[in-house]
TrEMBL record, chains A, B:
InterPro entries: FAD-bd_oxidored_4_C, FAD-bd_PCMH, FAD-bd_PCMH-like_sf, FAD-bd_PCMH_sub2, FAD-linked_Oxase-like_C, FAD-linked_OxidoTrans_Type4, Oxid_FAD_bind_N, Vanillyl_alc_oxidase_C-sub2. It comes from the Bacteria. It comes from Luteimonas notoginsengisoli. Keywords: FAD, Flavoprotein, Oxidoreductase. This is FAD-binding oxidoreductase. The lineage of its organism: Bacteria, Pseudomonadati, Pseudomonadota, Gammaproteobacteria, Lysobacterales. Pfam families: FAD-oxidase_C, FAD_binding_4. Residues 40-219 form the FAD-binding PCMH-type domain. Its cofactor is FAD. Transmembrane segments: none annotated. PANTHER family: GLYCOLATE OXIDASE SUBUNIT GLCD (PTHR42934).
Length: 462, 462
């Protein structure tokens, strides 16, 4: 935490106190609004809890007048420090703008405020047999606004897309305090610049999203699973490429490296065979089509290096199969209290090279580094495990991180598939993008936020 | 055509002549580079045929120095006048940058230059059993660069997405003459601002795209079709909503209004029943799943107002079924030589209201106006038919157009689903977007092209 001057100009305080009433807080437990799941924190100067778009405009106008930073906040589940108010200023929490404004089942659309929890939205959509595809592990805690901010994904993104693929339009307040209405209520749109997808993933640095029109998908009738074990990552990687090259898109295709397989067997107690790599593949469909989709995926999963293949066609068997995947996170916590969890992405053909490189880094830095995740998109979670009370281990973990990013980029990959950049990866952005491209991003930032008051210090390196 | 000063500064002429050799043309048949499928034209001052990225940078640098307009051009199949050099200047045609640089079947990616024809790309991908989803009617004539410029779609977009959904990364030269590399080689990406999807659909006003990494899809094993006739548009519209609300996404779902049905029967000689509205639905899948997908779509197509339902499960029957759709364009030409073809979009639930409104406009303006197109996305082609040699008819057609856009916007729709804005719809942009949103688009334009040299006068109203 950096020490910053947390005092606010008296006139700003008076203006926003008058406007927001008890939605304006400059005393009390402010710190909880200054931390997130990355375990970083910084103290904000004030918390604003807007109730409507006009409140948000008033906040931006007041802060802009005094060049006070504004940090938009959902539920604080970011793992990148994206919502930490390092420069002090006003944290705008959308907890009072958490209404589902409209569900339009015939158009497969929902209109929501940013503070709605992802899980609450899914429950509201369920009677319509619709869902909103982004499904991060934190779905029950995280907000749609947070999902929009970091372009959240999840295991089903391989078939249904991540957040950016499932948003049709946005209402947002720019750093100039102007309300813009971008996108449309339609699933096709060639009308002017696509500011919708530009704002998604911009982590509150371009505008504050105050309303979103979401694209919904029909809930599949049934699901079935396959578990495929391979002698090594190369065999599993080849299977992923085969699966993704045939027309039956899996609903999920999750990867575990050998270390993860060992962990869920030995610590998690999961009933799976030992293997060099594991794929957990889900299909969805209806009663008639599902067996054929599973069969197509099974054909593609078979090949050199396959050790074992188990199908789970009824819900109970499928749940048992996924229990192994769910056992992973608790098992990881038993190894080490410290974890740097990165969500790097590579082209699917490079998964074996990525995992081999991660294994080499684990040896070089003498730390457990495990890899698992969303193989169909090449989006692996590389977890560097260490004891945070051991200074030497912590130093080695932090030294391994830039090497992980360098490895990913050398394989034609990129820094983040679904967590975003925040501060955690900000200083690696100049390795992912050349100077002219970063300059173009900075120019876009200046276009939306000429005074640089929106979430300063995030996404783009200083 | 507006008369503009077509002379270029001598030093620019000398610089680009030296750089481009016979790829720099200031005399000869320049006009063919100044027209497009909208039947508009204007005379460019010069044609530049770059062979590489460095050539494009040289063109932008030289033009920027003298504030000379640059208009990027693919194959000139735009129907919106997007590539017409109304302000003179240099038309940059990408016909010499038409290489398929790489196909990576394991990653389902292709890297291409912008001048590649869409159809040539599809033929090159075919041996890999992959395709690039955008499938405009002009696929054999239009370029990938043109598809990127206007966010082209086509009938398969309902399942596979339009251009913007099928691009992973771009190399582009901004109006500052800088080469930027945006996006990634991965199908998930949460790394910084999404400039890729911003450039797609920007119609050459933000940057010149010089290379694209495209996302490919596996070719389905088989296709089958359904033809469903309804008593009226309301019944057909309800069927579209039912079809899109169930989990088996159709590969196409094309709509024809009663006037189109009558045309293809009476003029096109198609063997289809008379009806108030027609849906032509395609499914794809493999031998085992396809019958079940067709059955699911058939169940959803059935309902109040269904007159007739015909299935075509073998390729010959499917081809015969689609012959009716293909008979439409030639039949339209027999009615009137003049046609204003707009690609408006509404939420699917509003298709009946859109078609009813179009019928009312046809009566009011005493002109045939027919509607057909991509119902699954609510993206209908409204064709205002008139005799261009009849001044009164032409005037009525032009007067009906703003009313069509007003109707579309009143139904929560937008101006274009796949053709883009160009000049044809530019002056309606301030009805689709409010002033702050247009100001944000202009600020983005200025960020990429501070001197306003890239395709001036397109997309954004003056």
């Amino acid at each position: 935490m950096t020490t910053v001057d947390t005092s606010l100009p008296a006139s700003l305080d008076a203006t926003l106190r008058a406007r927001l009433g008890d939605g304006w807080q400059v005393a009390g437990d402010l710190r909880r609004y200054g931390e997130d799941s990355s375990k970083r924190w910084a103290m904000p100067s004030a918390i604003a809890l807007p109730d409507c778009v006009e409140d948000v405009v008033a906040i931006v106008d007041a802060c802009r007048e005094h060049r006070i930073p504004i940090v938009a906040r959902g539920a604080g589940t970011s793992s990148t420090g994206a919502a930490i108010p390092y420069s002090g200023g006003v944290v705008v929490s959308f907890e009072r703008m958490a209404r589902i404004l409209e569900v339009r089942p015939d158009d497969r659309q929902a209109v929501v405020e940013p503070g709605v929890l992802n899980g609450d939205l899914q429950r509201a959509l369920s009677p319509h047999r619709l869902f909103w595809p982004p499904d991060p592990a934190s779905a029950d805690q995280c907000t749609v606004g947070g999902n929009l901010a970091c372009n959240a994904g999840g295991p089903h993104a391989v078939k249904y897309g991540a957040t950016r693929d499932n948003v049709l339009g946005l209402v947002a307040v720019t750093g100039r305090g102007e309300v813009i209405r971008v996108g449309s209520n339609t699933t096709k749109n060639a009308t002017g610049y696509d500011l919708t997808r530009l704002l998604v993933g911009s982590e509150g640095t371009l505008a504050l999203i105050v309303e979103a029109t979401l694209k919904l998908a029909p809930v599949p009738a049934q699901r079935a699973g396959l578990r495929a074990s391979y002698v090594d990552v190369a065999s599993a990687g080849a299977a992923v490429a085969r699966i993704m090259a045939q027309p039956e898109t899996p609903a999920m295709i999750e990867f575990m490296d050998a270390a993860c397989v060992r962990l869920v067997r030995e610590v998690g107690g999961a009933d799976i065979p030992d293997a060099g790599a594991l794929l957990m593949i889900e299909a969805d469909g209806d009663r008639e089509t599902l067996p054929h989709v599973v069969a197509a995926l099974e054909r593609a999963a078979r090949g050199a290096g396959l050790l074992d293949l188990a199908a789970a066609t009824d819900p109970a068997a499928n749940a048992a199969l996924w229990a192994a995947r769910k056992a992973l996170s608790p098992a990881l916590r038993t190894i080490a209290a410290g974890k740097i969890n990165e969500d790097v992405v590579v082209p699917v053909s490079r998964i074996p090279a990525l995992v081999a490189g991660i294994e080499a880094l684990a040896r070089e830095f003498d730390l457990p580094i495990v890899a698992f995740g969303h193989a169909g998109n090449g989006n692996l979670h590389a977890n560097i495990l260490f004891d945070p009370d051991d200074a030497a281990q912590s130093a080695r973990a932090n030294a391994a991180l830039p090497r992980l990013f360098a490895l990913t980029l050398s394989l034609g990959g990129t820094l983040s598939g679904e967590h975003g950049i925040g501060v955690a990866k900000r200083d690696f952005m100049d390795r992912a993008f050349d100077a002219p491209t970063l300059a173009a991003m900075r120019a876009v930032k200046a276009a939306f936020d000429p005074d640089g008051i929106l979430n300063p210090g995030k996404v783009l390196p200083p």
